[in-house]
Each structure stands twice: as structure tokens, then as C-alpha cells.
Amino acid sequence: MAPDPALIASAGAVSLALAAALLALAQKRAADARVAGLEGRVIDAERRAAVGVSAADVFDSAVLLLDDGQVRLVSGADALRRCAPALGLPPEADALTVAAALSADPDHARRLKALANSGEPCDFEASAPGVAAGGGSASVSVEGRASGALAWLRLTPAVGEGLPSATRLAAFLDALPAPAWLAEADGRPAWANRAWLTAVGADSLQDARTRRLAFDRGAEAAAGEAAAAGERREALRWISVDGRRRAFQVDALPLEGGGAGALALDVTEAEDTREALKRHVASHDDTLNRLADAVAIFAQERRLAFHNTAFAELWGIEPAWLAESPSHGELLDRLRQRRRLPETSDYAQFKARELGFYETLDAPPDELWSLPDGRTLRVVRQPHPFGGLLLLFSDITGELKLRSQYNALVLVQQATLDKLNDAVAVFGSDGRLRLHNEAFERFWSITPTQLADAGDFDGVAELCLALVHDRSFWRELKARVADPDPQARAPVAGEIRTSDRRIVVFQTRPLPDGATLVAFDDVTATRELEQALADRSGALAEAERLKRDFVGNVSYELRTPLTTIIGYSELLDNQSDALPERSRGYIGAVRQAAAQLARSIDDVLDMAQIDAGEMALSLGDVHVAGLLHDAAERATRLSEEGQVTIAVLTEPDPGVIRADVRRLAHVLDHLIANAVRSTPPGGVVTLDAKRTFGEVQVRVSDTGRGIPYHVQAHIFDRFVGRDRGGPGLALALVKALVELHGGWVALESEPGAGATFTCHLPETAYAGSAAPELQLEAW
Predict the structure, then answer these.
(1) What distance in Å separates the CA atoms of residue 379 and residue 710, rounded to the nearest whole number?
(2) What does each C-alpha distance from 599 to 470, 558, 727 come to in angstroms?
(3) Cα separation of 538 and 547, whole Å?
(4) Rounded (10°) angle between helices 328-337 and 347-356
(5) E-strand spans in 92-193?
(6) Which of 390, 361, 363, 389 is nearest to 301 (CA)?
(7) Cα–Cα distance measured from residue 534 to residue 608, given in angstroms and rounded to the nearest whole number
(8) Predicted pLDDT of residue 569
């Protein structure tokens, strides 16, 4: 069925009318609320103008409004309930009943009538006859004031016999040294005591308002919050008072009827002390964090209150877990799980013992923990001054290892000293005997017991006086031991003689640790041997001189007849045509033997000069190639007699060296003669030289029978070469002359394959081997 249009229109009209009615009702209620608010504000302003604002508004005051015979309670309902019993009324009596009770007294009624009709202020005390003081308030203080057409009454109950009234309590607050004030709902001061006015520098609250002075905006905000929330508010504020920055603890309490009361206590000293304590704690914590030892502090409730960085590193525990302040027992459990506690068969007993240290008053003795990972810890426990326990862990693994090594070194040192032949004793800087060896006991004929009883240097010296009677010696030796002056402790050495005819060498050595080592050595046999060697050396020098003199004399004596023999042999050789062939052969043999003997004598004299260090080189520029050709030419006759070919190789040209040409020619003559004698007929003797690395190598090679291996090691020794046909001195002289130039000689030979002698000659001979008058020329 289709809806009826008339019914729909009727329902819409009703709904519209209902909505309009509700809207009008809401607008009226809003207008009434605004009017009531405005009226309340007007009434509050009139109340303030009439009765003012004082501490009594907060401390148990009830305010009544008298308007055209009507009585209305404006504020202080709780105070009104306390005033009623003083007037003989029940506590729940309303404002009208209380006003009627005040008018029961004719005098009070007259005053109230004058207040209501003509606005005359009044002040009086009211009470009901027969009301005991112990049953409640004994009386009510009444203040009456008028403002315009309105009259106001402020009722303040007395708080009991012997206790101050609200007015007197306000005077008490005014005398407090701490700033106190009453704040309105928005936090602005409505009343303030003298301390508050002094702090802001105002004569009165009105003066402070006029000059826009405030104790502290934050404190006023705290009072406003307390008034708005109806809850207590606290705040710590730093405020400048009399040019000094001071701390105030602000307490704001909400008051009945609106507003709040605030009190500011000066806590500057407490805050300064708290800040100093915080800085001290921070410094203490920073100091502990710099320690290498691990430190942990557990509070009274046995929870971790502090730990330094070394603690977390020592145990390898996560800092985040430690930051959660675990208990001591939880820490022990975690360390046990990670096998970082000493191994024990009863962990429960171990844990109970550790936690039992909280009950002890005295610090327990230190302990050593041997951990499964090989570390050794020293554990120190100390009751904390603020309660709880302080633990300190020191890793002494390295210390124990060093101590073990030190003890081992001491034992090794003692064993080493005991094996020494020298008598050794070590004295500390205080003169005490620290160490000695067995040789010291034997040297001075002292027993270990006597040394132990002697103790210091003076006691040891008394034991040694039997062998060394000189007390000044021991006093000077003591100065080297106990004198703190570094100059006095300088090392010293000397020699003394003992009463048993021994020669003793002594010496002192300061040690790095301040101790001094004193050593004695019996050198009697050494001195006797030195004297014997000195005598032998003198005898050898005398024998050498006699040898040189003998060689010189013999050489001189031999040269004279040799010269005569050589001269007559040459004369006969020149007249050999008149002599038979056999005689000419004899003359040649005599001449050759005499020449060879002369050369041998020259070699002996040269060797004697070299041995005596008396041979000097005559240095000059020597052309090496020319030196080789001249030597080959001088050996022509010898090579022809032996049917040996001499070849000279000088390509490339070895150049010039600085040497004594006569001595080098002598060297080559001996080497060539030695090679020719060792080479069979048809063989070849080769002379060559080459320059390399700052020297010239001059070689003499032959294709002869070579040198046996057992002879090569001694080929340059004197008189070893006799098996090769020579006197055995030529090669020794060759070696000596080459070394006199600063060079050396090498031999390469295989039996049956010839031999090669190589002379390594420096480009410039050593200046020390030259004659003094030639050294300047060489320079």
C-alpha cells in the first residue's frame, strides 16, 4: 500500500517543530550559563572588593552573600560545616540557618542589620551558650563588609583552645623566611608573604603587580597547574635572588574553593652538594674506567650498580646485558655457563659462599682464581660504604709467568756463578749481601754459615781481613757499594796481594737495580806465566837479532870470495879459446854455481829483511807489459839451456800499476826459473797479465809435470820446494814480496798437467809498505 502523502507531510511538520523547540531550549540554556558565569564573575569581584583576599580564604573561611534577605554560600562549604557546631547547629546546617543563629544575639543582629541596610562593616566573635571547646570549634570569627547593594560575611572557625586562628596563621606564614604565596586559578599571586616580596624587590603585592614583578614564571605555572588539576605539584627552580643564582624547591597545593598555596624552600646548598656528589661519582666512575683491573660494585639488593670497561672485557660479557643491572647470582650463573669460573665439584656451595660475603662486615682475604682458559685472577672483595659489595679482579697471569721466569733466571744465575772460577759477591745499595757463589767461599776460606751471620758488607769484610789486612782497601771498596753518589759507584779495578802470597785482581760493577757486583780473581799463576813469556820473548828477540847479525856477517863473508870466484871465472871464460874443451865446461859450471849461490844469498838477505820489517818498497809507475817482456828476455839463456819456449801474452794491454819494479822483476825471475825447471824440453812457459776489479793479475804458467797435491798446501813454505830442484826459498820470497805490495799469490795445478802461479797485484801498493821518503811521492 502506498503511503499517504498527507500523513507524511504531517509527520514532517511535527519533526520540524520538535527540532525548533530543542534548538530554542539549547540556546536558552547557553544564555543562562553565560549569564550565570557573568553573574559569578561579578559576585566574585564584588566579594574580593568587599572582604579582600588573605590567608584566611584558604585556612577554613566560609564566605556568605547577603542579598535582599537571601543568604547564599559563595565559598568554604567545609569551613561552614566546622562553624555550625560552634553556633549550636548540626554540621549539615545550611547558610541561612547559620545566619539566623548569628542573629540570635541582639548585639550581633544589630550589627548585621546595620551591614545589610547601611553597609557598615562589622567584626565580632559568635558562639552558642554551653558549647564545649573539646567538641569542635569554640567560636566563630565574623567579618562583615558591603560592596554596592551586596553584603558579605566571612566566617572563620577557631581551631581550638591554645591554637592560632586563621589570621594568626597567616601572620605566621608572613614571618617565614621562605617565600610563600596564595595563587588564583590562573596561577597569579593573590597574597604573598614578606619573604616573597623581598625576593622580588617589592613593597607590597600591589607594587609587584604594578611593576610587573614575579618570583618565577615557572613557580607560578606550577601553582596554576595545582589549582587546575586539584593535585599537588612540585618543581625545582633556579632563580636569581639578590644577584645570586639560587635553587628553590616549589611545593604547590590546591585549595578548597579554588586557587592554590605555594611555598618555595631554598635548597641551594643541597643542590650544590648533590651536584658535587654527582661530579664526584662521575669522576670516580671515570677513574675506575681507566683502570686496567676489572671493577664491579653490587648494591645492597645484590644487583650490579656499576662496572668499568675492563670488567666487561675481562669476562667477555655483552655490555647491553650488564646495563640491565643483573643480580650477583645471575652473573655467576652466566659465567658458569660460559666456563669462566674456577672448576668446582659443588657449584651451589661456591655460589652460596660468594653471596655470603654480603653478610660480612670485614673485608675477606684476597683469593686466586684459576680459570679453565689458563688465566689466573686475583679477587679482592671489599664492603661498600653505601652498602653492597665491591669486587676487583686483577689478571695476574703475566705477573705469575714473569715471576716464574724470574725465579728460574735467579736459579740459572746462581748456578752460573757457582761454576765460575772468580769469587763473586753481589751487595745491595743498603750494603746487605744478596748473592755469592761457591768460589767466593773457597777464595776467602769462609763457610756459608759465617756469611749468613755476617749479613752486610762490614761483616763480610771482617771475615776477609785475615787475608787482606788493609782496612783502607775495604773502606774504599765499601764506598763503591753503599755510596749513593753515582761517581762513587763508578766501576773500578785493581790488584792486591794477600797474606798467603797470592796476587788478586778485583773489580766492581754497578748493576741496574742499584746493587753492586764485586769479583776477585787469583792471577798468581797468570802473572808468573806472563813473566815467563816476557823472558822468552826477550830471549827470542835477542836470538832474532843474533840471527840477523849472523846472516849479515855470513853473507858479507860469503860475498867477498863469491865475487872473486865469479870474477876469475869470467876472466877464464873470456880466455876459453886457449883452454881445452873440458876446462871450458868446468869454468862455466863454476860460474853458474857461483851466480846461483849469490842469488840464494840475496834471497836469504831479502827474507831476513822482510821478517824484520825492514824492507821498504821504492814505488813508481810500472808498465806491466814491459815488465813481462823484460823478464822473458832475462830468462832467454835459461830457457835455451832447458829447451823451453817462453811466450808473453799482453793483449789487451794491462796498463800501468804503482809498484816497486825491481821487486816485481825479482818475483817474475823466480817464477820463470821455477817454471822452466819444472818443464821438460819442448814445453812452453806462458807469461800473461789482465786488469780486473781494481787489480792486475800476473800469471806464469807451464806445461811441466805439475805439483803433487800433498805439496800444494805447503808450496810457499820455506825449503819445501827442494824436490823441484831449487833451494826451497824462492817461492816463499815470491809470496812475501807480493804481500808486501798488498797482494796475494794463488796456485792452480794438477799432477802431470802443469802449474799456474797467479800474482794478484793492486793498482797502487799500500803506502805503509813504502819507504818514508817515497811515501810523499806516492801521495
Answers:
(1) 78
(2) 67, 12, 11
(3) 14
(4) 150
(5) 122-126, 140-147, 150-157, 180-183, 189-192
(6) 389
(7) 23
(8) 72
pLDDT at 644 over 70: yes
Share of the chain above pLDDT 70, in %: 82
Do residues 522 and 503 make contact, with C-beta atoms less than 8 angstroms apart? Answer: yes
User: Does residue 171 contact residue 191 with C-beta atoms inside 8 Å?
Assistant: no
CA dist list (Å): 5 to 16, 348, 420: 17, 94, 140
Distances 287 to 273, 284, 293, 309 between C-alpha atoms, Å: 21, 5, 11, 11
pLDDT digits (tens, 9 = 90+) for 577-632: 666 777 767 777 777 777 777 777 777 777 776 776 767 788 888 898 888 899 88
- DSSP letter for 357, please: G
Q: Which residues contact 415 (CB under 8 A, 6 or more apart)?
A: none
Cell numbers at 770, concatenated: 813504502
User: Residue 667's CB: how many other CB atoms inside 10 A?
Assistant: 28
Residues 435, 417: Cα–Cα separation, whole Å: 9
Give the CA distances from residue 273 to residues 242, 250, 277, 280, 745, in Å, rounded to whole numbers and listed in that order: 21, 19, 6, 10, 97
Model confidence pLDDT, tens digit, residues 248-300: 999 988 876 678 888 889 888 888 888 888 888 778 777 777 778 888 999 88
Closest Cα to residue 623, out of 684, 691, 700? 691
N-term to C-term CA, the chain: 151
Q: Which residues have C-beta within 8 Å of that of residue 708, sequence separation ≥ 6?
A: 751
pLDDT at 194 exceeding the cut of 90: no
Cell digits of residue 707: 805439483
Any idea what DSSP says for residue 500? T
Strand order in the sheet with 260-266: 189-192, 180-183, 260-266, 244-254, 233-241
The rounded distance, in Å, linking the Cα atoms of 433 and 319 is 53
Q: Helix (H, G, I), strand (E, B), or coil: what is residue 369?
A: strand
Amino acid residing at 289? N
In sequence order, the 6+-apart residues with CB closer than 8 A to the CB of 674 are: 721, 724, 726, 730, 731, 757
